[in-house]
TrEMBL record:
Keywords: Amino-acid biosynthesis, Decarboxylase, Lyase, Lysine biosynthesis, Pyridoxal phosphate
Binding positions (substrate): 276, 312, 316, 344, 371
Residues with the N6-(pyridoxal phosphate)lysine modification: 60
Amino-acid biosynthesis among keywords: yes
EC number in record: 4.1.1.20
UniProt record similarity statement: Belongs to the Orn/Lys/Arg decarboxylase class-II family. LysA subfamily.
Function text: Specifically catalyzes the decarboxylation of meso-diaminopimelate (meso-DAP) to L-lysine.
Subunit structure comment from the entry: Homodimer.
Cofactor(s) the record lists: pyridoxal 5'-phosphate
InterPro entries, sorted: Ala_racemase/Decarboxylase_C (IPR009006), DAP_deCOOHase_LysA (IPR002986), De-COase2_CS (IPR022657), De-COase2_N (IPR022644), Orn/DAP/Arg_de-COase (IPR000183), PLP-binding_barrel (IPR029066)
Protein name listed in UniProt: Diaminopimelate decarboxylase
Involved pathway(s): Amino-acid biosynthesis; L-lysine biosynthesis via DAP pathway; L-lysine from DL-2,6-diaminopimelate: step 1/1
EC supergroup of this enzyme: lyase
Species of the source: Gulbenkiania mobilis
Amino acid sequence: MSQLDYHNDTLTFGGQALTAIAERFGTPCYVYAERVLTEAYTAYRDAFASLDPLICYAVKANGNLSILQHFARLGAGFDIVSGGELARVLAAGADAAKVVFSGVGKTADEMRMGLEAGIHCFNVESVNELVRLNQVAGEMGRRAPVSLRVNPDVDAQTHPYISTGLKDNKFGIAFDTAFDVYREAAALPHLDVVGIDCHIGSQLTDVTPLIDALDRLLALVDRLAEAGIVLRHLDIGGGVGIRYTDETPPDLQGYADAVAQRLAGRPLRLVMEPGRSLVGNAGVLLTRVEYLKLGEAKNFAIVDAAMNDLLRPSLYAAYHQIVPVVRHAHLPPMKVDVVGPVCESSDFLGKDRTLAVKEGDLLAVLSAGAYGSTMASNYNTRPRAAEVLIGIDGQPRLVRARETLEALLANERALLETH
Ligand code: LLP
């Protein structure tokens, strides 16, 4: 991760000692570095510059308002999947005309919200959704801009839970039926067919499947044009994978060049929806060791962050590096499972890690900027962690206060009287 360095054996991120961050904001705490967000965004913008793409940051990766605002200021659009995410991006000052609305289950209310706001387009995933959107738009006296999410039946070769472009996934319109569905869409009076999109999976470290999917989409674009359905944009879905440990992320420029070569001479605006690669390595989860529990079979470092804060290890057996915030020269390293206090055996952040730690130490769980805080829950009635953004000026700012127990209980009602 860039911006992460030891100075005199103390880990700094974005120029700030993580010990000072923990002291001031407590743990567990997500810490993000604005500089890394900017670097990641400009890497996309520069690599794809010849295509002048609309880069729609996938809000689900990290929806903190300060991060959305930062990307909006850099000129980004947004990929949203719910009315909640729409409210979020609008609150962050997004330009609605740069918002694409993905997801298989949009409700009529969410469609109304999108139409009211004037979003760029709805990425539609089924015929029934088209019919509903047509009806909602008609009732509002509007035309809904539509792109069809086509499922190209390409194996993304990533974890099955985050692979989305195969025939047996719930996502998208089957490639073989897509041409007919486009014709149905074009015949509906309150829809404006503007684009095509796909998303085959996340954390891809090889771009070959992405390019295969693009080729399939372009063949369909040509067939549609012959039938008089001329599309204005092509959305290649999510971004490339990142380095968590020893992965080699694809070369962005190589990917961009391959896309540019295929789009050359076509009047198609490029849209993309990167999430993980814009925020993943811009964040760490800071946690404190509460107890060391040394046993015959295993040693455990029981920390104050848990699966409710960072679900990826439990859900996907995902690997996040875990490093000490203060390096002890004279403490012997030992093998530990880094686990949380939640009552589940799957509550771990890392297994069999070699660490020199003692109780009270701080640990940093790396590459936690994407799908970390957004997948957090209140399981075991644990308040959600604080989030801190270290600005370009090196100053840390609290961008999400630690959830209070009052807020956590606020929507619940006890039955005061029984009948
Ligand atoms: N567009 C669509 C329609 C998506 O479904 C996704 C991610 C993205 C864009 C962004 O993809 P990215 O650039 O982040 O690869 N929770 C999982 C990842 C789930 C991804 C779901 N869709 C994880 O923690 O690995």
